[in-house]
Every structure is written in C-alpha cells, then in structure tokens.
C-alpha cells in the first residue's frame, strides 16, 4: 500500500491516522487523550517528547489570527465596546484552543508526514503483524 500526499492531507483534515486512515488518533470516549500508537496499524503517533509543541503553536496562531485579531479590529473600528471586546477576547482565548485542540494535533501530524511521506510505515512496506502469526 502506498499513501500519497493527497491521502495524508485528507486524513489529517478528517482527524484520521495518516498511515491507515482509521479514526484512531484519539482514545475512544476521550476528547483530548491521544493514542500512543494507532490500534489499527501500529503507527507510532506519540513520536518523541516535545513533538506536539508545534501543534500548540499552530493552535495559538489560529486563535490569534482567526479570533483575537478580528475582535481587536472590530474594537478599534468602533463596532464593539471595550467591555464586549474584552469579554469576547477572554472567551475566545480560552474556548478556541479547546475547540481546536484535536484538529491542531491531527494537522501537525499531517504536516510532518506530508513533507516526509516516506516515513510512513505503509510507504516503507512495514505492516503491523497479524494476531494470527506466532512469533
């Protein structure tokens, strides 16, 4: 099986495993707990300590650019009062990162494999051993 960059991109946008495409990035029943590896194909999701610091930066950037800057502009133009702008900024600074958490983790993993697709086990020919095999 060969995974293309287009497949990696669409799987990342859909919060799916970049290797097999299953919805296994996050533990079942948990909104925020990431699997250490994909239960379906064995892809190591938690790569190294600090790997997902980039997803925090991505989350921060999206929060500032897509929410806080528009609130600031609306305040400076006079559309929002200072109290409403401050309340919206406070709610957005807390709410947007929480809502975008899963997507930022998935997108960061997607960006890694998008630029380095040969690191995916499916592109290396490495498959998870079946449970029927005796080692």
Task: Outline the fold blueprint.
Elements: H1 5-13, H2 53-77, H3 82-115, H4 121-124
Helix pairs in contact: 1-3, 2-3
Provide the descriptors you would attach to this structure in a database record.
135 residues; mainly alpha; 4 helices; elongated
Q: Distance between the terminal alpha carbons, to the nearest Å? A: 24 Å
Indicate the structural class: mainly alpha
Overall number of domains: 1
Average of the residue pLDDT scores:
88
How helix-rich are the residues, as a percent range?
A: 40-55%
Quaternary structure state of the chains depicted:
single chain
Describe the fold and architecture:
The model has no long low-confidence stretch (mean pLDDT 88). With 135 residues, this protein is mainly alpha-helical. The chain has helices spanning 5-13, 53-77, 82-115, 121-124.
Structure in a nutshell:
With 135 residues, this protein is an all-alpha fold.
């Amino acid at each position: 099986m060969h995974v293309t960059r287009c497949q990696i991109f669409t799987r990342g946008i859909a919060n799916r495993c970049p290797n097999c495409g299953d919805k296994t990035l996050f533990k079942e029943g948990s909104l925020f707990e990431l699997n250490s590896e994909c239960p379906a194909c064995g892809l190591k999701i938690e790569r190294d300590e600090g790997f997902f610091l980039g997803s925090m930066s991505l989350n921060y950037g999206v929060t500032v650019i897509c929410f806080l800057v528009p609130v600031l502009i609306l305040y400076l133009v006079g559309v929002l009062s200072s109290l409403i702008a401050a309340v919206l900024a406070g709610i957005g600074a807390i709410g947007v990162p929480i809502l975008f958490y899963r997507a930022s983790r998935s997108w960061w993993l997607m960006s890694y494999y998008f630029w380095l697709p040969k690191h995916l086990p499916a592109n290396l020919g490495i498959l998870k051993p079946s449970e029927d095999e005796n080692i």
